[in-house]
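Lab meeting prep.
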Amino acid sequence: MTRSELASFIDHTVLKPDTRAAAVEKLCEEAREYKFAAVCVPARWVSLSASLLKDTGVLVATVVGFPHGDTLSSAKADETRAAIEAGADEVDMVISIGAALDGDWDYVQKDIAAVVEAAAGKAVVKVIFENAYLDQSQIALACRASQEAGADYVKTSTGFAASGAKVEEVRLMRQTVGDALGVKAAGGIRDLKTALAMIEAGASRLGCSASIAIVNALPE
């Protein structure tokens, strides 16, 4: 894999609560230079990112119901519409983790569907499970709920739980959704070996904040 090929998998990410304009500007400059697939920023910074990345081919992603997933479905839908209006190409929404743990998969599916409906085909919808809280059967059921709700991707983690992406969980997610959905691995991907292992397991996107170090670890 070349550096440019690896870069095309990466959502260059900054989602810390203390994110400031300078960090977003730097993120977008780096994304332009390395030609990452997207930047992933808090909703407040979507408009700035969209203006900085106009006509570059780098997409703008943001997060919805982040990081806990416990907001009302109607609020997630409103967040989605507002983000798209501000210039978002992709939205990464967090499921109701408690509903998943309770086995209320009808709620989980309807919650995802509310965001898909709000996106109305204008933005890619990625569904964050927060796998640190789920067992393998729950991860598989979350994949099925996402697929039934019309989502485009399933995603491992927010990066704010006790653990992030794990190779075996990425593999399970890919096996469950097949080729129908993308799989995004995020959380704790800080080196080239881990990034390549996630791709080998079936990830089609990687959420990373250490993106440049990872790409530059490949020989030219």
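Slide two material, second protein:
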Amino acid sequence: MDGTTANLARNIRRIGHLDLPGGGQVVVQDGYAYVGHMKPPYGTTILDVSDPAQPRIAAQIMLEGEASHTHKVRVVGDMMITNVEQNRRHFLRKGEALPELRGKLSAELGRPPEDRELAAALGVEAGQIAELDAARERGYRDGGFKVWDISDKTRPRELCHKRTFGFGTHRFDMDANYAYISTEMEGYLGNILVIYDLKDPANPEEISRWHMPGQHLAGGEVPTWEGYKNRLHHALRVGDELWAAVWHAGFRVVDVSDIARPRTVASHDYHPPFPEPTHTILPLAEPIGGRRIAVAVDEEHAHRPGRLHAFLWVFDVTDFDNITALSAFDVSELDSPWARAPGRFGAHQFREKFDSTLVYVTWFGGGLRVVDVADPFAPVEVAHFIPEPLGDEPSPQSNDVDVDDRGLIYLLDRNRGLDVLEMRGR
């Protein structure tokens, strides 16, 4: 597909492609693209994209075993950080409920429960009970992040594996001085923010933590929600602020002018009534009409008929005490031939840098949408590109996007494939 097939592309053409295993994040710096893969044994791939029409693999980091995945990656200069997170974490954690569930069902039934009865209670297949038991007994202790020296792009060198707790690290941010890690930590419910000093990359030192009230169970806090629905997804640094998406609790703005004492300065939650969780929040680089504007994106999960898909939000955040939703942008199911194919359809993530009013946002089965928010009350799509699914994949699953200093767009599929794209005149 050359990017001109009817309705699959507008104002964008494909100039390069690589059939890579699916990924969770792509970042581009100085002629190289870094891809964190969704599934082991693939860890992180470094691509030479100096010729964008012919991306080539400079190095691949492979994983041992299937316990972890490293699907997120960040790069600053010659330092790379990759997450280390339990593979299939949400499924495997169901096994933690099995001992209590067995006791409960045994008391109700007057006999030990069968696997099919346990499976029905957990929402899994009967044949998966043994796998869940084995994973619980084995445990998981590798969650955290790794720091790499990438001064030689063909030979990334591991400097350290910093272990945290539980699932480990999900999406995160970093700069030359600090890593802003979203991770589980002992004594807390769900992911929190842990900030590490990177002055010695081989030995990152924790300097502070931030969490929402109710997460610190060991400190006596009591959550007002059930399960893991309110937790940090990740936080992005802008000046002396961190903009934190906190899943079904909306978003927070955290002041880190004193990096050792992060403090919440703004909070906005639109859940309920909106069902999909907040994935990313970031303010535009410049005010519009004297007002500070932020863009948020929710992440599509398993869609239920009649429920709203995940979409893009535009907020006026000029006054932290009066944050106001100005508009939203959505993609119709009619705009993609794979809207109802197996897989997700709806928003996921946008490029985590604003240098104009253009928002490059991935839409799973809806591909890439480029949205101009110059009028924050009326976002307008100015370009889109929907890749065709590769191999036996039933739908494209556009997952992440970045843009290099040449203006070229790197679109990563969750299941398979990386496209290099170029915007044309609007």
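Talking points for slide two:
The longest strand covers residues 12-21.
The two ends are 21 Å apart (CA to CA).
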